[in-house]
Design brief:
With 248 residues, this protein is an alpha/beta fold. 45% of the residues lie in helices and 15% in strands. The chain contains twelve helices and eight strands. The chain is globular and about 45 Å long. The structure holds 2-phosphoglycolic acid (PGA). 2-phosphoglycolic acid is lined by residues 9, 166, 171-172, 210-213, 231-235.
């Protein structure tokens, strides 16, 4: 059985004070849930959030990292730096990073491999643009992105990865893929993983949906057989809304 994982992606939002207050408010309300709970926050919030989340089931993740261990990479943060402060997860290849910060299939692969080799759980994003969807390229785009992300990763490590299918046209727009459409693409991604790694990995590996997930549509999405969680931006910013997502 795959354990669902509900993750907030705060993007570039919140002060340390607001973030810590959020974790304090959410902790008691998600205690004992069967769902894995993750908050991915900006770098400056990570250490205080790890501290605030101590002793709870709330896990703290970063939204990006570099694929090298160290060096002259001004402005970058390494896997070891994240581990040092107790971060457990890292989002890799979010569409906003692909779009604005020159993230490529190749860097997504390098980062995924680095995260796995260090013991961080990578949340690897894929998804098509509206143009690609309208051109009927949804599956070929996801296939390319997923195959590239997993290139050179063995079956043992692959199971650790969380994939997030996020159609770009659904992010922050209020437009959600229908739950059937989302499940259809996610089932297809599972098929790709089946081809790469066989049944055990494809049945164990978790694939989230992301893109305008809200408390009022989360249950329907989560009821789909292949959707194992959600990566949520806007609706993860308020404690009540985030708790409602976790307790779908
Ligand atoms: P959204 O963002 O929930 O605000 O659409 C999702 C994401 O970008 O991960």
């Amino acid at each position: 059985m795959r354990k669902p994982i509900i993750a907030g992606n705060w993007k570039m939002h919140k002060s340390i004070k607001d973030g810590v207050a959020f974790v304090e408010a959410v902790k008691p309300q998600v205690k004992g849930t069967d769902v894995e709970v993750l908050i991915c926050a900006p770098y400056t919030l990570l250490a205080p959030l790890v501290e605030a989340a101590k002793g709870s089931n709330v896990q703290i993740g970063a939204q990006n990292m570099h694929y090298e261990d160290k060096g002259a990479f001004t402005g970058e943060v390494s896997a070891d730096m994240l581990l040092e402060i107790g971060v457990t997860h890292v989002i890799i290849g979010h569409s906003e990073r692909r779009q604005y910060y020159a993230e490529t299939d190749e860097t997504v692969n390098l980062k995924t491999k680095k995260a796995l080799s260090k013991g961080l759980v990578p949340v690897v994003c894929c998804g098509e643009t509206l143009e690609q969807r309208e051109a009927g390229e949804t599956k070929s785009v996801c296939k390319r992105q997923v195959e590239a992300a997993f290139s050179g990763i063995d079956a043992k490590d692959a199971t650790t990865v969380v994939v997030a299918y996020e159609p770009i046209w659904a992010i922050g727009t209020g437009k959600t893929a229908t739950s059937e459409d989302a499940n259809d693409v996610i089932a297809y991604i599972r098929e790709i993983l089946l081809g790469l790694y066989g049944e055990e990995v494809s049945e164990e590996l978790r694939i989230q949906y992301g893109g305008s997930v809200k408390p009022n549509n989360v249950e329907e999405l989560m009821n789909q057989p292949d959707i194992d969680g959600a990566l949520v931006g806007g609706a993860s910013l308020e404690p009540d809304s985030f708790v409602a997502l976790v307790n779908f």
